[in-house]
Amino acid sequence: MKASTIFIFYMVFFINPILGEAKIKTQISGQVMDSQGVALPFANVALVEVESEKLITGTVSEDNGKFDFSTSQKGTFQLKVTSIGFQPFLSDPFEVENDESRDFGKIVLQEETADLGEVTVRSSRPEVIIQADKTIVNVEGTVMAEGSTALDVIGRSPGVYVDSDGNINLNGRSGVIVLIDDRQTYMSAADLANFLRSMPADNIKSIEVINSPSSRYDAEGSGGVINIRLKKNTMNGVNGSVQVGHQYNGLNTPFTGATVNVRSGKWTTNASLNYNEWARIIDLDIYRRFQVEGGLSNFDQEANINIRRRNLFFNGGADYQINDKHSVGMSIQASGSDGPDRGLSLTNISNPNTADLNFLEAVNNNETNSQRIFTNLHYIGNLDTLGTKITSDIDITRMETGSLGFLDNSYWLNERVNQESDRIRTDNDMLYTIYTAKVDFTKPFKNGNVIETGIKGSWVRSDNNLDIQRGVTGELLRPDPNSNMFIYNENVLAGYVNYKGKFSDKFEYQAGLRGEHSDITGNSVTLNQVNEQRYFDLFPSAFLKQNVSENYNIVYNYNRRITRPNYRLLNPFVFYVDPLTTERGNPNLQPQYAQNFEMSHNIKNAYQITLAYGRITNSFNQIMSQNEETRESVFQVQNLDRADNFSLRFTLPFELTEWWSTSNMLQVYYNRFQSPLGDEMLDMEQWSGMVRTQHNITLPKGFKMEIMGLYLSPFLEGQAKIRGVGWVDAGVTKSFKDDKISLTVNATDVFRTQVFRVNVLFDQIDTSVQQYNSNQAIRFTLRYKFNRGENFNVRSRSGSSEEQQRLE
Q: Which parts of the sequence belong to the TonB-dependent receptor plug domain (predicted)?
């Protein structure tokens, strides 16, 4: 059965059940604030029947403190608002008799003041929160996050798969853009992976997985958006934490860090400094077969690569509340990384016409370093009581990377005598600077509709100098013709408008349009080759929410998006992996475009069934080719005509007992890639699946445990078939001294099953790869939380996990 037939069958017979007649609803809204006028997110808002004290419905306040929900029941009710560290709010009784809206305006919660030596604050929240437009994965305070990196926690998010090189896929699609607090990083995939490995998970509050972004977001990212929310200071007074830990995966890697938060009067500041080491032992086996006269020539390669990085990461910020309507602030991120790569590979080459064996030994020694500093200045203005807001941001980013490597190769026949040798020296330095500025304006109307609009400009420049020298070992090295100096400039000007409203209580909608003008120039100074791309594109988005009942809604999404080739992909460089393997840039690479459709069934704001379809034109894929004469394998990112993706995803959280909760995701998806490739036509398709389950267990005597398991069935990426892979991670933590001290033990890839296997069988190519990255590890983390001041107010961004899962 064709995928399109299955899609239509599912749409008609399973997706649109009518669960009941639509009922007239009363809309209830408001905003939760503290006594200083600061919005309170994650406050529990409940509608309670006066006579029976029964919970009818409710919600959780958003990041701006606002809440909005509806009820179809009539009667006498009270609104109850609670947040840990604050006194509960209970409204006067009120009648609900018709469909009129009821706006409670600003609800001010009074802080509970207590001596922290006598008070233990405990709060929990669901690991995964399902919202109509995104999935939020809570990272802060979780067992598995202790001692982890940002890339680790992204890889544990629902629908996300991170491959052995750090490339990120979402729901079976590549082209995923990673934001940090809604801001682009503008890095290549390799640089981004290294940066995320340097960022401790301890700095992260949550991960937002956005499959269908609205026009408010940059159009970049055809595969979806992953937004990293960093922690903000949410407590009055002075507080913070210090951590120290150690990991062993065959190599020893220490890590340590400290965080300090200060909130006093109109000032809120925070700073964190972390040091960690990241190390891997990569075992790599590559088997290549070449057609020669008389049969097949086999290239059997075994490699061992030892990588170590020393990372330093600083994150800090300050906000000043000018008055109850206006605030300004700044934030700084600074990171540095350096370390060696040491590789040794041995290749034996057989020929069907002789019994002789040729051998090639390659020794690779590489030193790398990188430094990045990011600065943001921002302003927030709340212009009226309806929620009219204007925000502006100016960002400046500067990043430098460098690597110096020596590849020493030795060749011999049968026995290691009379060997020949040569050396390749590679020196690669890169500098890029990024300037961005944007203004966003939000205007709510009295009828509840909202218009959003904004403009943005970004200016990117990258200077890349690749110097290659090669020659016979012991002799003077000579310049290689593949050396290259490349200058890349990218300027993007954008504007958008987005409108939210309601057709009725049953239907809510959102429609947006974003326009982006791109001006890109790639200049290979060495080759005297200039490649210019200028284009203007429109990116529409649409959102429709059908409220079938109080506990069930259907959300329909559509958007059009783009992924532009970055400086590394467009640079016509040649990078030597070994004498038989090279990686090459592609100055002719065109942007890829995606059109995405998604339909989600949300039940009780906890369970979700999502059906999605996406088509990408000019799809980016790493293509392998080979030279039958020289036996050289070449890897290059190229455009494929089209890539189609269907996916069906089930999100199923359960409270098994009072002490055991679980979050589960089951996904089935289909990929098909079609394009002329050389003299052949590529047409490959495959059905695949992913299962992810996470268990949170409260053990006796204050112990907590988390277990996460993931299995990904065989799947397709361009011309490559990736075999199935799965693994299990686990962690346990124990707190002491009123939760001030905690000790956490984590184990990753417990059964050593996270082995990546790839096969490429296309045209004349017959290659198999197996790689293991020493993911099996044990990690110990000791953390101490501190606070100063006899009395100050405790705030928390979370409430009871059980209550939040009950509320709509």
A: 147-225
Q: Is 15 helix (H, G, I), strand (E, B) or coil?
A: helix
Contacts of 215 (CB under 8 A, 6+ apart): 496, 497, 498, 512, 513, 514, 539, 540, 541, 559
Q: Which two tokens stand for residue 54?
A: 């029964």
Q: Is 448 helix (H, G, I), strand (E, B) or coil?
A: coil
Reduced to 3 states, what is the DSSP secondary structure of residue 605? coil
**Count of residues in the chain:** 808
- What are 168's strand-pairing partners? 162
- Residue 34: enclosing H or E segment and its boundaries? strand 26-34
Please report which helix (H) or strand (E) contains residue 5, including its range. Answer: helix 3-10
The structural domains of the chain, ordered by start, are: 3-111 (2.60.40.10), 128-356+381-806 (2.40.170.20)
Q: Whole-angstrom Cα distance, residue 64 to residue 41?
A: 6
- DSSP 8-class letter at 201: G
Question: 425 φ, ψ to 5°?
Answer: -105, 130
Query: Which token pair is 117?
Result: 């030596």
Task: Name the amino acid, one letter, at 372.
Answer: R
Confidence (pLDDT) at 235: 64
Residues of the chain with pLDDT under 50: 1-24, 113-125, 789-808
What separation in angstroms does the CA of 684 have from each of 288, 592, 642, 672, 766? Answer: 21, 19, 11, 6, 16
Phi, psi dihedral angles at 442 (to 5 degrees): -125, 130
Residue 649's alpha-carbon distances to 9, 602, 646, 652, in angstroms, are 16, 12, 10, 10
Q: How far apart are CA 412 and CA 421, in angstroms?
A: 9
Distance CA 218, CA 636 (A): 27
Q: For residue 41, give the nearest of 146, 153, 129 by alpha carbon.
A: 129
- Which DSSP letter does residue 143 get? T
pLDDT single digits (tens) 474-524 = 788 899 888 999 999 999 999 999 999 999 889 999 999 999 999 999 999
Q: What are phi and psi of 193, to 5 degrees?
A: -60, -45
Would you state the torsion angle of the CA atoms of residues 31, 34, 37, 40, taken in this order, to the nearest 10 degrees?
Answer: -50
Residue 768 Cα distances to 390, 475, 579, 580, 637, angstroms: 54, 36, 18, 15, 19
Q: Which structure tokens are listed for 277? A: 């080491």
Element holding 195 (H helix, E strand): helix 189-198
Number of neighbours of residue 791 by Cβ within 10 angstroms: 10
Query: pLDDT tens digit string along 349-361?
Result: 998 888 888 999 9
Place of tokens 């330093």: 312
In degrees to the nearest 10, what's the CA dihedral of 670, 676, 681, 685? 0
How far apart CA 740 and CA 397 sit, in angstroms, is 36
SS3 570: helix
Residue 220: strand, helix, or coil: strand
**End-to-end alpha carbon distance in the chain:** 38
Per-state percent for the chain, helix, strand, coil, to nearest 5: 5, 65, 25
134: number of Cβ within 10 Å: 16
| Residue 143 CA: distances (Å) to CA of 232, 233, 254 | 20, 21, 18
Reported in sequence order, the residue ranges of 604-749 that DSSP labels E, i.e. its strands, are: 607-627, 632-657, 660-677, 680-698, 703-712, 715-717, 720-722, 725-736, 741-748
CA angle, residues 662, 664, 668, in degrees to nearest 5: 170
Phi, psi (rounded to 5 degrees) for 766: -140, 95
* Backbone φ/ψ region at 561: left (φ over 0), alpha (ψ -120 to 50), beta: beta
- Compute the distance between CA of residue 4 and CA of residue 10 in angstroms, rounded to an integer: 10
For the residues of 260-311, what is the DSSP string, one character each? EEEEETTEEEEEEEEEEEEEEEEEEEEEEEEEETTEEEEEEEEEEEEEEEEE
Enclosing H/E stretch for 784: strand 777-788
Q: Which of 156, 196, 515, 247 is nearest to 372 (CA)?
A: 196
